[in-house]
Amino acid sequence: MARQNRAQMAAATRSKLIAAGRKAFAEKGYADTAMEDLTADVELTRGALYHHFGGKRGLLEAVIAQIDEESSVRLRAVAQQAASPWEGFVEECVEWIRLALEPEIRRIVLLDGPAVLGEPAWATSHDTCLVSTMESIQALLDENVIRPVDALATAQLVNGAALNASLWIATADDPYQASVKAIASFRVLLTGLLR
Q1: Tens of pLDDT along 105-150?
Q2: How many Cα atoms sit within 13 Å of 85 on the Cβ side?
Q3: Cα–Cα distance between 171 and 164 in angstroms, integer?
């Protein structure tokens, strides 16, 4: 019983720190977030932050992992609601680009994440996304919806285009206008895959 209570308390502490980190990183950015911003509002100590995450950088990784998981659920729902597998694939990709319009995702995932964590830290998230895209492309190939292409190469290109569109939106003076242009062009690019 005591072990379960400790585990529950640890999970609650982690959740509080992730929520505090998410709020502070979204509002102030990683560089301008002080340790006190991460602990004071949730009435925890720096020691708790170091114990659970090893510091601010580890907390950023956990925040991004949480946002990635929520985004994945959202993207799967968009794909499942589509009228056909092709439309599901296109709308899932487009929704991924649209995520760059959300201030929290723009700042934490697209701007601060790569700047702080660098490429190796992104490899797992990128690989997961790549596998998902490749599986979708392979399913479209199997159903004879798209032209014969190499699934991995096509997934790399589709993901690269979507990521670059998202980064453009995240850094644009007018993110909404950039998203309109990027999404329209992205849709045209994808139609080249259709039979």
Answers
A1: 999 999 999 899 887 556 667 788 899 999 999 999 999 999 999 9
A2: 14
A3: 11
Amino acid identity of residue 115, one-letter, is A
**Domain count of the fold of the chain:** 1
Instruction: Select from 125, 70, 53 the least CA-distant residue to 21.
Output: 53
What domain range includes position 22? Answer: 2-191
d(CA 103, CA 139): 33
Task: Inform me whether the pLDDT recorded for 185 exceeds 80.
Answer: yes
Kindly give the interhelix angle for 56-81 and 46-53, rounded to the nearest 10 degrees. 60
At residue 173, what are phi and psi to the nearest 5 degrees? Answer: -65, -35
* Distance, CA of 89 to CA of 63 (rounded, Å): 27
Going from the C-alpha of 136 to that of each of 28, 108, 151, the distances in angstroms are 37, 27, 9
CATH number at 85 reads 1.10.357.10
**Predicted model pTM:** 0.88
d(CA 94, CA 64) in angstroms, rounded, equals 20
Q: What is the pLDDT of residues 23-72, one digit of tens each?
A: 999 999 999 999 888 888 788 888 989 999 999 999 999 999 999 999 99
Question: What tens digit of pLDDT does each residue of 51-61 get?
Answer: 999 999 999 99
Return the closest-CA partner of residue 93 out of 176, 166, 192. Answer: 166
Written as one letter, the residue type at 123 is A
